[in-house]
Design goal:
Blueprint: E1 3-7, H1 12-23, E2 27-32, H2 35-47, E3 51-56, H3 62-74, E4 81-84, H4 99-127, E5 130-135, H5 148-168, E6 173-180, H6 194-197, H7 203-214, E7 224-227
Parallel strand pairs: 1-2, 1-4, 2-3, 4-5, 5-6, 6-7
């Protein structure tokens, strides 16, 4: 049984990934701050003959990640697939952002991806196999007004994994980035009417795209996958 580590797994795309990968035969390891929600998800997966484990953790706290995560992962090595899904956004005029806002967005969208990936790479290199997947955003490739901080974090995240892809290919490790467009999750700060959101992607649809990438044949790597709802004028 392959093991898949998923960050931001308590809601939205991460929750859909947890159920889908477990259903597809993976042992899923789930990370998020909301331990109660993770416990519920794992209980449902395990009662359905799947395999799931969780670790409540604040991925913006590097000290906590480095203290807690290695011993948790040691129980389940090797990690075959890492899905860097955790993310957040703060939007508004640039002059209104505080240093705390900057740290929050960069710590979760960029630093957490760096830390989690660094922690699994040694084992993947030893196995000479593995797959690192990032659920980024279509704003890794574009910008929009009042989104300077979020766009900067996603551009940086994309650059991190684009460079890593070249670095680890000789070790048989795949690196893929998914760029979802508008997706109907709790991520959006302003709730749009259902008449609008019903035209967007669902969390399950994005999760299906990630599974498609993870299940590609061994000699195939899908470097990048941009996915939008038909209604979005990208």
């Amino acid at each position: 049984m392959k093991t898949c580590l998923i960050s931001g797994a308590s809601q939205g795309i991460g929750e859909s990934l947890a159920y889908l990968f477990a259903k597809s035969g993976y042992n899923v390891l789930l990370l998020a701050r909301d331990g109660l929600k993770l416990e519920t998800i794992c209980s449902e997966i395990n009662s359905g003959e799947g395999s799931a484990h969780f670790l409540p953790i604040d991925l913006t706290n590097a000290e906590e990640v480095l203290q807690k995560l290695p011993s948790f992962l040691d129980q389940f090595q090797p990690v075959n697939v890492l899905i860097n899904n955790a993310g957040c956004g703060i939007f508004g005029p640039m002059e209104d952002f505080s240093l705390a806002d900057y740290d929050r967005v960069m710590d979760l969208n960029l630093k957490a991806s760096f830390l989690l990936t660094s922690l699994v790479l040694k084992g993947m290199k030893e196995e000479r196999s593995g797959h690192v997947i990032a659920v980024a955003s279509d704003v890794s490739k574009r910008t929009f007004a009042r989104g300077s901080l979020y766009c900067a974090s996603k551009y940086a995240q994309d650059a991190l994994f684009s460079a890593l892809r070249k670095e680890v290919r000789p070790f048989g490790i795949k690196v893929s980035v998914v760029y979802p467009g508008l997706t109907d999750t709790a991520f959006h700060p302003v709730k749009e009417p259902e008449s609008v959101t019903k035209q967007w992607l669902t969390a399950d649809q994005v999760a299906q795209a990630v599974l498609f990438i993870a299940e590609a044949p061994g000699q195939v790597v899908i470097d990048e996958l941009m996915i939008h709802p038909l209604s979005q004028d990208y």
